[in-house]
Amino acid sequence: MSGVETVIMVDWSARSAPSPARPVKDAIFVAERTAGETRVTYHRTRAAAVAALEAAFDAALAEGRRVLAGFDFPFGYPRGFARAVTGRDDPLALWGWLAEAVADDDRNGNSRWEVAERLNGMFPGVGPFWGCPAGRASGLLPMRGTARHGHGMAERRAVEERLRRAQPVWKLFTTGSVGSQALLGLPRLEGLRRRYGADLAVRPFEGREAPILLAEVYPSMLDAEVRRRQGPGEILDAAQVRVLAEAFAGLAPGRLDAMLREGDPVEGWIAGLGHEAELVAALR
């Protein structure tokens, strides 16, 4: 694989309204590392963040630069989920299904609770998705994970069994609710797939070469190093994507390629997991 000249890391958000004008935690931060320089930007909505990503991808393609873009939410679900929903084990077929099912407007208004209910209705018992605001719970979408039963899905992907700090993708509300981030993130990534076609590939699901690569990341994987490098007054979310972009950008091309190809082709994988020391060394 030829080298990647631009590394972009994205801290996503499942907010249901625009983030405040002044940067705050738990919003969207995008770090872009090109030619030894890192730029971090703050985005109040998912639509604004995607527009910025498209502009960055378009510029890279025009200039002949290869791009890696990492996103901090799960790219897949426990084995069997995609097949139950789409009839196939292909995780990208599930991305397509979600892109048609999820409504997510320019001001972050979205239908994730309704979509979670619809998905839960495809399974026996109660679940697997859970978590919602008080008063939003229903027979199809319980507030608490302990209310689920008999749905038949594993609680965690293999990668989450290995990284126990990572939350299960079924959790939609309160701290660490990556489930909502995935439900609102995967349709946006599917939009990028449709826009860029053969110029974009998703690791580890697609092995073909492309000038734009998408991968799942977990910024807290380098938590100690991030906190050591966090600047005065720098929001932790911003520091995480900045440091992660610099770490992946510092890898030799062959090592980066190998890391991106690791993992389960159905459930997905967190890029760089198990190689934390190598990523830290790449920063130096």
How would you describe what is shown here?
The structure is a single chain. By secondary structure, the protein is an alpha/beta fold. The chain has two domains: 6-74 and 181-282, Nucleotidyltransferase, domain 5 (2-Layer Sandwich); 111-180, no CATH class. It is 37% helix and 12% strand. It is built from ten helices and six strands; from the N terminus they run E-E-E-H-E-H-H-H-H-H-E-E-H-H-H-H. The chain has a six-stranded mixed beta sheet, sandwiched between helices. The model has no long low-confidence stretch (mean pLDDT 97).
- Give the ordered list of helices and strands: EEEHEHHHHHEEHHHH
Low-confidence stretches: none
Number of domains: 2
Give me the CATH fold name of the largest domain.
Nucleotidyltransferase, domain 5
Mean pLDDT across all amino acids: 97
**What would the principal axes of the Cα set say about the shape?**
globular
Strands side by side in the biggest sheet: 3-2-1-4-6-5
Total number of helices: 10
Largest β sheet strand count, sense and barrel closure: 6 strands, mixed
Q: What is the CA–CA distance across the termini?
A: 23 Å
Proportion in β-strands:
5-15%
Radius of gyration: 18 Å
CATH architecture of the largest domain: 2-Layer Sandwich
Range of helix content: 25-40%
The computed structural class is alpha/beta
CATH class of the largest domain: Alpha Beta
- The tally of strands reads 6
Protein name: Molybdopterin guanine dinucleotide synthesis
Organism: Roseicyclus persicicus
